[in-house]
Amino acid sequence: MDISLIDKDKSTFFFRKGEYSAKEMTKRIFSEDIIEEFKGYSSEGASPTKKGCLVGLYEANQENEETYREKIKHAFIKKGRRGDNMSLHLYRLLIDSLNISYEVESSIASICSSGQNLKLSGSLSNGINYDLYIDDLFINETRTILDIRFKSVTNDVIADPYPIFKERETFIETRLYVNSGIVALYNSSDNESIEKDILSILFYFFQRHSKRYEKVKLDESQLMMTKLSMNGEVLSPKYRSEDPDNAFRLDMYGVTPEHEGHEVVKFIGDSHLSMYEFSINCVIEGYNCRLRITEDGGLFISTPVSPKVLDAIVSILSWVILKEDYYEGTDRTISKLMRTKKPSVLEYKITQKIENVSNNIRELIAQNGGSDQERRLFITVLVNISFMMISEGYIYAIKENYSELEDNENVGKKNFRALIVDYCVFYENIQSDEALEYAELLLKFLVHILLPSAVNVVKLIVNFEDMQKEWSQCLAERTS
Fold first, then answer.
1. Per residue in 303-346, pLDDT tens?
2. pLDDT given for residue 469 in this prediction
3. Helix 432-445 vs helix 394-402: angle between axes, to the nearest 10 degrees?
4. Same domain, 463 and 343
5. What domain range includes position 97?
6. Percentage of the chain with pLDDT > 90?
7. Residue-wise pLDDT tens digits, 231-266
């Protein structure tokens, strides 16, 4: 990448284009590298500091500032970290079959080149409160990414010493991922009003009516799926109680897998607190990152990274969001099924059934490892996969391919087996004898085939979906 020196700091993420000011470059070089490169300019003796080296370098070249900047650039090329800190919020445009047509591209490019105020642009201005302009845009070759740099112009009142109006320009950048409809907003300063304006404009570029968008919301299951998909080290999980009569939050710092057996960590696992945020050390696209993810779609990395890091994260999040059918809560699923079977069932019976089924499955997945929270998620996903295998007809493919599996002591988990039987009878209208046959066959399949290779819940879903492809072909041949 070519590196260019610019005169001013430019807060940017998607439109960096290899341009850095001298100040931005020095921020992106570690102190020890600055000292190693410029210690000869320091007047601090045997213990030079980054600041002392830079001050000495500047004083030695103050009559030729360009030489100072070129020396900084040379050090940055050798030792600097390219990119920018990442502080973003994620939204989704709720548009079916989203695509960047050449008509859409032409419309955006025309507004950009004309310098038009979007607040005054007729069809695009409905409900827009801020003076907004399009400063730059980019569409990738596959037309799956659209970057737009918006300029917001406001008049601030400054009393110094008398009140005066001063025009202020703020640049807000967006990246739209066409395949998922996810929009990343950079530098919006948590200003929800201006975020709404920008999202409305983005929506109107593609559809001129019924503007619909939403914040990306990640529940505990999705946060845990994201954490497992990144395969990193979680350091700072944050939890809260969902009980409205006993609401509290619990933040933990410095937690690593080595603390799994600590009594406080075990207490959290047993307490059914819900995780709403975590930080994770991981490697993404070659960058060593400490990523913080929040339940309301906030993504934060406090070290310089390139946009391709965000692309990788959004790819994971898109996969996690699309798998929401797997997260139907076990408690709710069992409760609904028992009330379908017997509307007058007592609450304590439901609670007892949930506990018995969960204990059965815990014994089945004992070898799959993970924290208590991960095991609860594993139970939820496994119950939903079991029901999918019945409702989508995959049980017939299992019957044809795995009917010779042997029984063992794990298969006789009567509460889990009874749950599958009830699902077959009351949701799929399968006769009870046949339902019992399917339940026993399904349990044997889980024990012998699906669970042994599922090191975590992400792998469980991946393995299941790989098998789905084979089963779909088998079913197609069966019905042809």
1. 999 999 999 999 999 999 988 889 888 888 899 999 999 999 99
2. 86
3. 70
4. yes
5. 86-215
6. 55
7. 888 888 888 887 767 777 888 776 666 666 677 766
| Residue 198 near residue 339, CB atoms below 8 Å | no
Q: Which DSSP string do the residues of 326-376 spell out, in sequence order?
A: GG--HHHHHHHHHHHH-TT--HHHHHHHHHHHHHHHHHHTGGG---HHHHH
- Preceding peptide of 161 cis, ω within 30°: yes
Q: How many CB atoms lie within 10 A of CB 428?
A: 15
205: pLDDT confidence band, cut at 50, 70 and 90? very high
Mean pLDDT, all residues of the chain: 87
Looking at the fold, whether 386 and 474 belong to one and the same domain comes out as yes
What burial class does residue 286 get, using C-beta atoms within 10 Å of its C-beta: 0-12 exposed, 13-18 middle, 19+ buried?
Answer: exposed
From CA 377, how far away is CA 384, in angstroms rounded?
11
pLDDT in tens, 176-204: 999 999 999 998 777 888 999 999 999 99
Contacts of 298 (CB under 8 A, 6+ apart): 88, 89, 90, 292
Helical H runs in 28-160? 31-38, 50-60, 65-79, 102-114
Q: Determine the Cα angle at 387 with ends 383 and 390, to 5°.
A: 145
AA letter at 70: E
Distance CA 313, CA 69 (A): 35
472 and 355 inside one domain: yes
Residues 118 and 54 in one domain: no
Name the residue with tokens 């998620």.
377
- pTM of the predicted structure, to 2 decimals: 0.86
| Residue 11: φ, ψ to 5° | -65, 110
DSSP 8-state symbol, 447: I
What CA–CA distance (Å, rounded) separates 31 from 21? 18
Q: What is the C-alpha separation between 266 and 262, in angstroms, rounded? A: 6
Statement: residue 407 has pLDDT above 90: no
